[in-house]
């Protein structure tokens, strides 16, 4: 699955620089995660870094973008040019 940022986001700016895939950007109201770029940090880290730094715990799994760890690893390889 990709991750999603909920309306609980306080725009604290700590998640965006932590994303190794540049999947997080400022949206109209709150930060947003591009599901095409989010690998839940698979390939980079053991845990999603945005979830680790979020002070309000507003970054759950996105039920609309379900992916296995294998699919996330394939996406990581494509994003990083290792495919």
UniProtKB/TrEMBL annotation:
GO annotations of cellular component type: cytoplasm
Domain 4Fe-4S ferredoxin-type: 1-29, 31-64
Record has rRNA-binding as a keyword: no
GO molecular function, one term: 4 iron, 4 sulfur cluster binding
Residue ranges of the TM segments: none
Pfam short name (any one): Fer4
InterPro entries from the UniProt entry: 4Fe4S_Fe-S-bd (IPR017896), 4Fe4S_Fe_S_CS (IPR017900), PSI_iron-sulfur_center (IPR050157), YfhL-like (IPR047927)
Keyword terms, alphabetized: 4Fe-4S, Electron transport, Iron, Iron-sulfur, Metal-binding, Repeat, Transport
PANTHER family (alphabetical): PHOTOSYSTEM I IRON-SULFUR CENTER, PHOTOSYSTEM I IRON-SULFUR CENTER-RELATED
NCBIfam families membership: di_4Fe-4S_YfhL
Name this protein carries in UniProt: 4Fe-4S binding protein
Organism: Thiopseudomonas denitrificans
Lineage, broadest ranks: Bacteria, Pseudomonadati, Pseudomonadota, Gammaproteobacteria, Pseudomonadales
């Amino acid at each position: 699955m990709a991750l999603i940022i909920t309306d609980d986001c306080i725009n604290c700016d700590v998640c965006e620089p932590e994303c190794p895939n540049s999947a997080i950007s400022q949206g109209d109201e709150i930060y947003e995660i591009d599901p095409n770029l989010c690998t839940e940090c698979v390939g980079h880290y053991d845990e999603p870094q945005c979830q680790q730094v979020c002070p309000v715990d507003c970054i759950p799994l996105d039920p609309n973008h379900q992916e296995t760890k294998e699919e996330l690893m394939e996406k990581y390889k494509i994003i990083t040019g290792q495919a």
